[in-house]
Write a structure and sequence with these properties.
Elements lengths: L1 E3 L8 E5 L9 H8 L4 E7 L9 H11 L6 E6 L1 H12 L4 E7 L9 H11 L4 H12 L5 H17 L21 E6 L7 H5 L10 E5 L6 H4 L1 H31 L1
Parallel strand pairs: 2-3, 2-4, 4-5, 5-6, 6-7
Antiparallel strand pairs: 1-3
Helix pairs in contact: 1-9, 4-5, 5-6
InterPro entries: AB_hydrolase_1, AB_hydrolase_fold
Pfam families: Abhydrolase_6
GO molecular function, one term: hydrolase activity
Length: about 260
């Protein structure tokens, strides 16, 4: 196991990554957000000899976040978003808000779950299925991009703490989180489609939001980083104003 920590300085937001071979898809959004907020990147890499579980990552993430004296805006895409969701359930006092990218109301249904389900259904090789998966995930018809992504997906299966396997698909029941939550997805994502995203509606609080990018498929935040960043920033700023109003009301009541 290896762990890359953000620098020990104060920051406003933390973007999680437990998918080292897919982290390049996060970079454009991080650059867009960094123009307005201090944002850090936390990375977890699992070796092939370790049991595949999110529990060690959750523990190490807490050990890192607890060193800061203020709650943070927490973000994650796909499997990393699932980790962010689990963290907000366990340690809500450490989270200012939660932003999930391509995480549906059944949060355990990632591309990995689709891949392992298809392994049982289709009589094709691992490489063929990964190529098919890459093509469905990527908003591009360029073959070199699809081949590159298929290779990255293969590496991800070996180095990420995926809770699924050929033996079965792990279940993570849908549930509300006590922190303000923004859920983002793409209207043409085949993994977390609009129906999967809208299934969050039964668990939303008044401050929570669901937002759809017009296209971009599973990595919409890579193809439309500025558009996604604008939505995230708007959500954060609304939360900050709401929090300030609540604090002002409390202070007024205490003063009387």
């Amino acid at each position: 196991m290896s762990l890359t920590l953000a620098s020990k300085k104060s920051f406003d937001a933390l973007f999680l990554s437990v998918s080292p071979h897919l982290k390049l898809f996060d970079q454009p959004l991080l650059k867009s957000l960094a123009k307005f907020y201090s944002i850090a990147h936390w990375e977890y890499v699992q070796t092939e000899d370790e049991p595949s579980s999110l529990d060690p990552a959750l523990t190490l993430l807490y050990d890192y976040v607890k060193t800061f004296d203020h709650p943070i805006h927490l973000m994650g895409h796909g499997l990393s978003g699932l980790l962010a969701l689990l963290f907000s359930h366990h340690y809500p006092q450490r989270v200012r808000s939660l932003t999930l990218l391509a995480v549906g109301g059944q949060p355990g249904i990632t591309w990995h779950a689709h891949y392992y389900a298809q392994r049982h259904l289709f009589p094709c090789s691992r490489e063929q299925l990964l190529a098919k998966t890459a093509q469905s995930l990527l908003a591009s018809s360029e073959q070199w991009r699809i081949r590159s992504l298929a290779l990255a997906l293969r590496q991800e299966l070996d180095t990420s703490p995926i809770p699924h396997s050929l033996l079965g698909i792990a279940a993570f029941p849908p549930n509300s989180t006590p922190v303000p939550m923004l859920v983002c997805g793409s209207a043409d994502d085949s993994i977390v489609d609009p129906t999967a995203l809208k299934s969050w509606q039964n668990f939303l609080k008044p401050i929570d939001q669901i937002w759809f990018c017009p296209d971009g498929r599973h990595f919409f935040h890579y193809f439309y980083p500025k558009l996604v960043a604008l939505k995230v920033l708007d959500f954060w700023e609304k939360w900050e104003r709401s929090s300030a109003q609540i604090q002002a009301t409390i202070q007024d009541k205490l003063a009387k």
